[in-house]
Structures are given as structure tokens and as C-alpha cells.
Amino acid sequence: MAPRWRQLFDTWEKAVAPGLEELTASTEFRDVTATMARWNAAARKQSEAASRQWLHAFNLPAATDMRRLRRQITDLEREVGVLRRALQDNGEDRTTERLAALATIGDANGAKRKAPAKRSNNSSNGAGKKTSAGKARR
Q1: CA–CA separation, 110 vs 115, rounded Å?
Q2: Residue 133 gets which letter from DSSP?
Q3: Are 33 and 25 in contact, with CB atoms under 8 Å apart?
Q4: C-alpha closest to that of 66 among 57, 58, 56, 81
Q5: What was the pLDDT predicted at 102?
Q6: Domain assignment of residue 73, yes or no
Q7: Quick one: 44 and 69 in the same domain?
Q8: Alpha helices, H only, the chain
């Protein structure tokens, strides 16, 4: 025999279920539910915009900033993996193939990454150059 609470629940459910099923199958119920979902989404959007503005006012990152950063970190990890495998191949034919694959990886905005420009050893102001004694000139 079922516990008393279960018997009470089953009795209540038998009495209420047909009316609830009829209610939830109605077009009015669907319309009200859809309207409430739209209101909820609009309120959430406004709340997120307000919190984002508040956080940015105090120079703090918002959730959208964190998502963008996570995406950038994932892209960078992928690029490092490609470069690591290319270096491990050390001259195999696959190195060129992997470097070509690296060039196709886009950043979070979908733009292709450019190879860093080579820096010249000649500096126009001489800052940071080492003299023959090994000390930096200023």
C-alpha cells in the first residue's frame, strides 16, 4: 500500500489533471506564454545592458567582455598548438601544411591574423641597444 501522502497526491492529480491539460492545450495559454516569454527576454536584455554600463563605468569587465576574451584565448591556444606541432615536425613536409592551417585561423571577429612584422636590429633612437661593454645606452 502506498504512503498516505502519495494517496492524497494521486487523488488531487486525478481531480486537477483534466482541467490543466485542457488549459495548456488552448491557444490562449500559448499566446499568454509566448507574450510572457517575450517580456522576460526584453527585461533580461535591459537588465544586462544596465549592468554592462554600470560595470564599464567602474572599468570592470561584463559577461560579453569575458566571452570575447575566452574566445580569443581559445583561438590563441589553437594557434600555439599548430605552431608547436609544426616545430616538432622540424622540417617534415607537414610543417608547411600546418603553418598554412595556422594562417586560416581567424580571430574572434573573423579577420585573418597577419604574421608579425620583422623588426630591424637598427633602432632609430638607439634606445635599448647594448654597447660593447654589455650595458644598455640611453
Answers
A1: 16
A2: T
A3: no
A4: 56
A5: 74
A6: yes
A7: no
A8: 4-25, 27-57, 63-89, 94-104
pLDDT of the residue at 119? 46
Question: Is 77 within a domain?
Answer: yes
Counting beta carbons within 10 angstroms of the beta carbon of residue 131, is it exposed (0 to 12), middle (13 to 18) or buried (19 or more)?
Answer: exposed
Quote the CA–CA distance of 10 and 8 in Å, as a whole number.
6
**Phi, psi for 58 (deg, rounded to 5):** -100, 15
pLDDT tens for each residue of 67-124: 999 999 999 999 999 988 888 876 666 666 766 777 777 544 455 555 545 444 444 4
The rounded distance, in Å, linking the Cα atoms of 95 and 100 is 9
Q: How many CB atoms lie within 10 A of CB 76?
A: 13
In the chain, what's the furthest Cα-to-Cα distance? 97
CA 23 – CA 11 distance, rounded (Å): 20
Indicate whether 31 belongs to any domain. yes
Q: Which domain holds residue 100?
A: 63-104
Mean pLDDT taken over the chain: 81
Nearest one of 123, 105, 125, 124 to 115, comparing CA atoms: 105
Residue 40: phi and psi, rounded to 5, are -65, -45
